[in-house]
Amino acid sequence: MGTTTVADLVAQSRPLVIFSKTSCCMSETIKILFYGFGANPAIYELDELQNGQQLERELVASGCRPSVPAVFIGGIPVGGSNEVMSLQVKGELKKMLLKHEVIRL
């Protein structure tokens, strides 16, 4: 069997996917934000996965800087904490979560 990629994990998971590290305070903040909406994300802690370093290199190569948190909603790469917080401030994050059925009213 081949190596699992970021795309594989996003495709096989829930509509909200977060790549994180247990030592990253911004990752924790983003997870708390989504839990506050009632979301149940698939979370991949890169520092706990056997292929975590390979996944992290893939995230960086795709433009995620820093590599975590990296958020995907409905299979679409949203970005990191700055992008997620920007969507929240603009009032667009909840709409996006509803649109992709991450949460329900």
UniProtKB/TrEMBL annotation:
**Which residue intervals define the domain Glutaredoxin in the entry?**
17-75
Instruction: State the superkingdom.
Output: Eukaryota
List UniProt keywords, sorted A-Z. Answer: Cytoplasm, Redox-active center
Q: Does the keyword Cytoplasm apply?
A: yes
What GO cellular component entries does it have? Answer: cytoplasm
Annotated compartments: Cytoplasm
Question: Which NCBIfam families does the record cross-reference, listed alphabetically?
Answer: GlrX-like_plant (TIGR02189)
Question: Family assignment?
Answer: Belongs to the glutaredoxin family. CC-type subfamily.
**What is this protein called in UniProt?**
Glutaredoxin domain-containing protein
Source species:
Rhododendron griersonianum
Q: What is the lineage of its organism?
A: Eukaryota, Viridiplantae, Streptophyta, Embryophyta, Tracheophyta
